[in-house]
Amino acid sequence: MKWKVTLSDLDFDWKEQEKVLSVIRRKWLTMGDLVLKFEKMFARFLGVRNAIATSSGTTALHLAMRALDIGKGDAVLVPAISFVASANVVLYVGGTPVFVDSTSPSDFNLSIEDLEKKITSKSKAIILVHYGGYLADFDRIKILAKKYNLKIVEDSAHSIGVKLSEGFIEKEVMAGTLGDIGCFSFYSNKNLACGEGGMVVTNDDNLAEKIRLLRSHGMTSSTLQRHKAKKYTYDVVELGYNYKMTEMAGALGIEQLKKLKRNNLRRKTLTKIYIKNLSRIPGFSIPFLNYPRNSSYHIFPVLLDEKVNRENVIKKLKAKKIQTSIHYPPIHRFSYYQKRFGFKSGFLPIAEYIGKHELTLPLHPLLKKKDVEYVCEELKKAII
Ligand SMILES: Cc1ncc(COP(=O)(O)O)c(C=O)c1O
């Protein structure tokens, strides 16, 4: 199937090609100088003390759980409307994900009211997702976290390069650096793409040291250090993992980071074109309209009216070679989670409504205005 308009696309050119070729020519494929350079660039970009590259966003989140000593008997609050990895990582360490409903059909981020209701003496942390890049209400979440002594892990997979506030401020605070630990994904469809890759960021040097150890088997020296004859042996001091980033991914990350600001701006422009073409059309609503906080415009979601058959709309758009997706089926309704925890339909009504009626339209920096207009025209026809 050759799509006319794909859901996402990669802004790669000769710079990415050249950088990856240089890795192959140098014949150092595993985590090396380019990954270290990418980490430094990333930390500087976010204004954070430590950035630790990983093999994916999922492994970044897993390391965050381990670093915070989340384990058996601990509860972690997770928005039900997110990618399944946001909850899986809690299970990896033996904890229990406690699902939080969305705020409303126009704000898919987690509901602060529901969040507070779900906090118990077992609660240890919140995994905070900024859905689609739209920043959650961090000020109120921080107050709750302080009140109940909860750690905040930002799952910033969607929200790379988003400033907390616009305008003249002395220090720009970026998404991912708002909580105790921030995690990023560089999966192929993300605003910064390396294929597979991720990053953990933190201003806490002790957490950073633990995360670095856990990323590489709990070993006290790296292959690169031994190759450069800086160390000749190692000890293993933690039960760690092999969650290292490859040099190819690091090379892509360096080039992609240079394009991020421009590409996020392009996504914003395209979102505005969507909104202009789709407002006041019956059959669906656009969430996050007039949203009070910033966004990376990672995706463009719409919420179809109850009477509109989503499957038909998807099929009609597919016939016009327009690719769409769903973000997200709520995690607690997946068979695995239902079987394990017995969640019933209606447990989180807003998240479940969003899961049934949301439709994600194509959004990526290579889209042209005419592509967006084409999608809008076809959507209007598909909904009638
Ligand atoms: C919100 C969210 N969290 C976590 C992940 C996991 O990242 P990865 O696919 O890099 O493991 C993703 C993306 O895929 C995501 O969208």
The CA-CA distance between the termini, in Å, is 25 Å
Name the ligand types: pyridoxal-5'-phosphate
CATH superfamily of the largest domain: Type I PLP-dependent aspartate aminotransferase-like (Major domain)
Instruction: Report the principal-axis shape.
Output: globular
Strand content range: 5-15%
Low-confidence stretches: none
Spatial extent as radius of gyration = 21 Å
* CATH level-two architecture of the largest domain: 3-Layer(aba) Sandwich
User: CATH class of the largest domain, anyone?
Assistant: Alpha Beta
Average of the residue pLDDT scores = 96
Strand order of the largest sheet: 1-9-8-7-6-2-3
Main beta-sheet annotation: 7 strands, mixed
What is the H/E string? HHEHEHEEEHEHEEEHHHEEHHHEH
Structural class: alpha/beta
The CATH topology of the largest domain is Aspartate Aminotransferase, domain 2
How helical, in percent, are the residues?
25-40%
Descriptive overview:
This protein has 13 helices and twelve strands. It folds into two domains: 14-100 and 108-258, Aspartate Aminotransferase, domain 2, CATH 3.40.640; 260-383, Aspartate Aminotransferase, domain 1. Helix 4 (85-92) links the parallel strand 2 and strand 3. Helix 3 packs across helix 7 (205-215), helix 9 crosses helix 13 (369-383) and helix 10 (310-319) crosses helix 13 (369-383). It has a seven-stranded mixed sheet with strand order 1-9-8-7-6-2-3, with helices on both faces. It is globular and about 70 Å long. The longest helix is centred in the last third of the chain and has 32 residues, at 247-278. The protein is an alpha/beta fold and 384 residues long. Bound molecules: pyridoxal-5'-phosphate (PLP). Pyridoxal-5'-phosphate binds at residues 56-58, 82-83, 85-86, 129, 155, 157-158, 185, 187, 198. Residues 56-58, 82-83, 85-86, 129, 155, 157-158, 185, 187, 198 line the site of pyridoxal-5'-phosphate (PLP).
